[in-house]
User: What shape does this take?
Amino acid sequence: MTTDLAPEPVGTLTIRTLAMPADTNPAGDIFGGWVMSQMDLAGAIAAVEVARGRVATVAVEAMTFIAPVKVGDILCVYTHVERIGNTSVTISLEAWARRNRIADRVKVTDGRFIYVALDEAGNKRPIPR
Assistant: This one.
């Protein structure tokens, strides 16, 4: 016999924020660009910890919008370090919405962002091992 468990987010909770009316499109859903910016912020936080310093987003390798985010949802972004290169780090991200600010949550977006480590002058630098 198998039991179906509710899916769980993969990674570490990095950002949690409230979706507000100012962030909506004409249909009343939260703009995908707002969700993407929250994911980029969370990914950068994770990348800074790995790189131990300044990073910049260089690519969004993949992004899938699964379900809309609604006004009043709490958007929770989870991060997982997927790959560490010489100067770059790849972070996989999942965004989950807590509907009506309760424990009921749904996965709304996932993606893979790549960041490059930068020195004080804005040039690429090696990531410390």
Helices lie at 32-51. The beta strands are 12-18, 55-65, 74-84, 88-98, 105-117. The mean pLDDT is 93. The first strand starts at residue 12 and ends at 18.
